[in-house]
Design a protein that fits this description.
The protein is an alpha+beta fold. Helices cover 27% and strands 16% of the residues.
């Protein structure tokens, strides 16, 4: 629960972990910006499915070696449709990317029933009798022989992943000494409907049903899913603690002014101040490397950036 360091503490527990640590530290009396835990983002993430299409997808993970030899399951996110070009989205906040996902093995047996029970499916309209029979036969295969059955409904299901932009209205607080994350109006409704329409057209072109993530149903309060929570210790937009928790190097402000804790540095997604509209890994890495480089220069330390890691082995 306690960390002691002579010069530096680099916080890299992820947006959720780092923000929780800072909130606990503030509760114990460490002065910092009043914006800690605020203005978090879900990176505009959307999870959706094209269920039971006319294409074989093989998008469900498994460790069954004999199955994989016949029907290899590819890694997650090997393809991307990039819609961030200025001609497509003159306003940067309207840009987005569409990627393909893979369902983890642990969810394989629950995904089928959840997708079949979803009340707001968008089914294809221009479907022939042959395609309707194929769809019914594929469902029966999955129901009788399991989610990995070749040609079954789940074997033909594509997982959509979208990264776009949201309004940074999430916040974390401590409730009963536990972190609580709240998303208020995380989805820009018109923007989400626009993206839903695009994904729905894609699913229907493949003669499959478009389905939002299973927890988006009104029964679950319209819940969204994000795999990229960012912010919470946001990089300040004016160099003071009034507009952020950290400065441009990730150093934590001591309050609302520009004074910082020299040796308390955030180097993960918690410093990212807004949705990026794409997977944030490269941005987080670049910010972390920049922080270390600049702080090393301030201290007069030399870092060998030439020698490759493999050369040490």
């Amino acid at each position: 629960m306690w960390v002691q360091a002579k010069e530096f503490v680099f916080l890299a527990a992820g947006a959720l972990g780092t923000t929780e640590i800072l909130l606990r530290s503030k509760a114990y009396g460490l002065n910092m910006s009043p914006t800690v835990g605020k203005n978090m983002s879900g990176n505009g993430d959307i999870l959706a499915f094209a269920y039971n299409t006319d294409q074989i997808v093989n998008g469900i993970g498994t460790d069954n070696e004999s199955y994989l030899k016949k029907h290899p399951v590819g890694p997650c996110i090997t393809g991307i449709i990039d819609m961030r070009d200025e001609e497509v989205a003159p306003n940067v906040l309207d840009g987005y990317v569409i990627e393909e996902g893979v369902v983890p093995e642990t969810l394989a047996h629950v995904l089928g029933p959840m997708l079949q029970l979803m009340p707001d499916q968008v089914k294809p309209k221009d479907i022939s009798w042959e395609q309707l029979l194929r769809s019914s036969a594929s469902k029966l295969k999955s129901d009788l022989k399991g989610p990995w059955e070749y040609g079954g409904a789940l074997n033909r299901t594509l997982t959509y992943l979208i990264m776009s932009h949201d309004d940074n209205q999430a916040y974390m607080s401590l409730e009963n000494n536990k972190p609580a994350l709240r998303f208020n109006g995380v989805a820009r409704s018109q923007h989400v409907l626009f993206l839903d329409n695009i994904l729905g057209k894609g699913a229907n072109k493949l003669h499959g049903a478009f389905e939002r993530n299973p927890f988006y149903s009104p029964k679950f309060g319209g819940a969204e899913i994000t795999v990229h929570p960012i912010g919470g210790a946001n990089m300040s937009s004016d160099g003071t603690g009034k507009k952020g928790v950290t400065n441009h190097l990730g150093q934590v402000f001591k309050g609302s002014n520009a004074e910082v804790y020299d040796g308390l540095v955030v180097v993960d997604g918690a410093v990212v101040p807004a949705a990026l509209g794409v997977n944030p890994f490269a941005t987080i890495t670049a910010l972390a490397e920049r922080s270390v480089e600049k702080l090393a220069l301030q201290k007069g330390w030399n870092i060998d950036y030439v020698t490759q890691n493999g050369d040490f082995l």
